[in-house]
Predict the 3D structure of the following.
Amino acid sequence: AQSVTQLGSHVSVSEGALVLLRCNYSSSVPPYLFWYVQYPNQGLQLLLKYTSAATLVKGINGFEAEFKKSETSFHLTKPSAHMSDAAEYFCAVSFSGTYKYIFGTGTRLKVLA
Amino acid sequence: DVKVTQSSRYLVKRTGEKVFLECVQDMDHENMFWYRQDPGLGLRLIYFSYDVKMKEKGDIPEGYSVSREKKERFSLILESASTNQTSMYLCASSPRQGTLAGGIVPYNEQFFGPGTRLTVL
């Protein structure tokens, strides 16, 4: 079955430190992959997406993610965390032939001063 | 900018009431979705619609119905609200999926509304 897994429901980093949020998917067909961010009391907004072009994808707010087919991963990174990055992050996947998107359970990022 | 609006940010209803959640998008998107978001469970798809009057069940449709009479509006209906339907409800829209050799290629991202936090007492 197709699925997406986010390791770590809560991640804490110091301001200025590297942010790494993990996402792995399970699929027998090529996926389309997305990272969304949700700030408190708001809906989700797109950070970046992978749609089979470049494997390293750059998004908004300094985030990027790398698609690694051999590891079935699409981890989100940012070199230097900022206080404003504190939010919940969702990885999502979709596949050809379906209208549906599958979301991970989310990772809440806390940035420590 | 794409805008997806939801009729209420917060809603409190009684058990057994019929509840309507409204969602409107202003970018002429073909696809619309209703999710519920619960801590530790992420987003779960309730229903989606890929055209006017067309709807398909998602992963957790029980206790819900939907209506899409106009392209820009997608309504979620709780026929008889229960306490286990207390949740955050998110509406989303997306453009028609791209096609590759006639197949659906869902590379378009979804645009989300701000959510409705529903409490059923």
Chain A touches chain B at residues 9, 32, 34, 36, 41-46, 49, 51-52, 90, 94-101, 103-106 (CB under 8 Å).
